[in-house]
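Title: Comparing notes on inverse folding

I've been comparing how different people in this forum approach sequence design from structure. To keep things fair, I'm posting one structure and asking everyone to reply with a full sequence. Here's the target:
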């Protein structure tokens, strides 16, 4: 069979390791692979690249994706589904391995329901995809954020400053909680727990009152602010841009600066903000992510061989299992509040 491979959505360390695993496993079984460039866009525009032993050699440790990526939504393009099916047929592509997060796999799930032979591999540094304990890329992002927090600690302490570290995490605060615990954060703000400025300021004042002269605040880009007038509501994103992508997501990033200004204004403590942004998505994957990505890639080919279309590779406990795409994209996997309680033991 001829297997089309694509990477969609935000890039993530470990994508190349998955591509390599899919290609090597497919070739070992006598199948053929073709790379679809830049996510779903590539198949709508017939933009392909060969995938063979040579093209996947030397990429295991490399960040980014050799296939390129985009946030193209097939269902926002006129006749998108029909064009995709036509192009698969025209190019002899029998089936697809879609490597992506909730958006890319959401499209894959709809396509599978309409008869396209597609399986998925769960990717996102945010770790918010349902039906899998972990997505690859998350471990790398947490390690990058933890190293940054360690570095910010020494400069915060030297200057008696509060430093706000903004990490990624649109709907879920997994990166913030894991890196915050690992880096010894004094307060962590996540989308699952709407915050208000008074609470943050109280925690910091208490800490400084017991003799500490510096603090580290870790905030997810998607943390939700509850205003005084709407303290009963779930809070809203703190936005500095109104731009949206083709899945309707607003562009996040910038809450760290606003929070830092507010902390300084309300406490008088000198405060700085560091936004880690795309640094968390770039560069080489950790060994853990390389192994997970490799296991996912091999398993995705096994799903195709077994004709388990509409499924993705998932990590449950220590096993890689098949999880339905519909279940994976049906809801988000938000932070386990028991884990947040562990983190909050160290607040203040
Ligand atoms: O979904 C992963 C993610 O890293 C989010 O945490 C973040 O909001 C988004 O991607 C940013 O994506 P980009 O700036 O590449 O559009």
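Reply #1:
Here's my take.
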């Amino acid at each position: 069979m001829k297997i089309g491979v694509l990477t969609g959505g935000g890039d993530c360390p470990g994508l190349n390791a998955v591509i390599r695993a899919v290609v090597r496993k497919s070739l070992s079984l006598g199948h053929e692979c073709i790379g679809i460039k830049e996510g779903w866009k590539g198949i709508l525009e017939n933009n392909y690249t060969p995938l063979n032993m040579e093209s996947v050699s030397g990429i295991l440790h490399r960040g980014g994706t050799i296939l390129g990526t985009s946030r193209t939504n097939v269902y926002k393009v006129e006749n998108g589904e029909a064009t995709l099916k036509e192009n698969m047929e025209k190019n002899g592509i029998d089936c697809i391995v879609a490597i992506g997060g909730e958006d890319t796999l959401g499209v894959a799930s709809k396509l599978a329901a309409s008869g396209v032979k597609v399986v998925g591999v769960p990717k996102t540094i945010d770790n918010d995809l349902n039906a899998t304990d972990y997505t690859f890329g998350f471990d790398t992002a947490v390690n990058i954020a933890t190293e940054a927090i360690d570095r910010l600690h020494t400069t915060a302490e030297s200057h008696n400053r509060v430093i706000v570290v903004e990490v990624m995490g649109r709907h879920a605060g997994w990166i913030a909680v894991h890196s915050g615990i690992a880096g010894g954060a004094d307060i962590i703000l996540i989308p699952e727990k709407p915050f208000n400025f008074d609470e943050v300021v109280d925690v910091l004042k208490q800490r400084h009152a017991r003799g500490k002269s510096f603090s580290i605040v870790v905030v997810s880009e998607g943390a939700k602010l509850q205003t005084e007038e709407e303290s009963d509501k779930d809070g809203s994103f703190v936005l500095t841009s109104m731009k949206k992508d083709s899945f309707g997501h607003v562009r996040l990033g910038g809450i760290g600066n606003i929070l830092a200004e507010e902390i300084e204004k309300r406490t008088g403590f000198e405060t700085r903000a560091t936004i880690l942004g795309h640094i968390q998505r770039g560069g080489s994957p950790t060994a853990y992510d390389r192994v997970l990505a490799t296991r996912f890639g091999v398993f995705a080919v096994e799903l195709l061989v077994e004709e388990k279309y509409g499924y993705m590779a998932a990590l449950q406990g220590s096993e890689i299992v098949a999880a339905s795409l519909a279940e994976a994209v049906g809801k988000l996997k938000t932070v386990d509040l028991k884990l947040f309680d562990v983190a909050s033991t160290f607040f203040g």
